[in-house]
Amino acid sequence: MTPLVFLPGMMCDARLFAPQFAALSGRFPVMNAPLGERDSMPALARDFLAMAPPRFALIGLSMGGILAMEIIRQACDRVAGLALLDTSPLAEREETRARRQPQIEAVQAGDLPRIMRDELIPSYGICGPYRLQVEDACLDMALGLGPTAFRNQSIALRERPDQQQTLRRFSGPSLVLCGRHDPLCPVERHQLMSALLADARLVVVEEAGHLPTLEQPSAVNTALEGWLARLA
Known about the structure:
Elements: E1 4-7, H1 18-24, E2 30-32, H2 41-51, E3 56-61, H3 63-75, E4 79-85, H4 94-120, H5 131-158, H6 164-169, E5 174-179, H7 187-196, E6 200-205, H8 212-215, H9 217-228
Parallel strand pairs: 1-2, 1-3, 3-4, 4-5, 5-6
Helix pairs in contact: 2-3, 4-5
């Protein structure tokens, strides 16, 4: 059975995928990979590949999807399938890059709760019936990871490369999924990724923003089941 590796978004941990673990862990080996130990995507990917199973399928959301693309760039032959959720293959936009250092400095000065509450969480466009619970979970996950993870992840995201050519190289079964109302990684970005991948299916989840795994877990689980049925 192909192991499933979940790669969470910025300042998120395994709780981002709790509904998916509950649905899939009885039938597949599942693991969550931490993303806070290094400040570059290539280094994070190398660390992951050194401890990962010989072959696996990747499910990455936001920063986790960006790391999944770097893993493919380094070891395409080890990836049996790819699910990219609310993410982007593009290098970071200049206006976003410009916000990173002030946020890092504020967090290092003790303002992580404020940065999360006032800047990051509102940018996720969270909606749906579980909005308040998802917002609370985002803050709790971030506080658990702490300022060092925030710094490392911010730098890794800021310096990430464009991965469009990487996606063109991957021929395995792919799922490209996003929330309809994601302001960070809009539907058009996912249409681009779906077009770049050789064997991709695009799913847009209604009444969801940047974190559909928690906002609309049933819809995400259904999409993942369809993708898993295509894995060799």
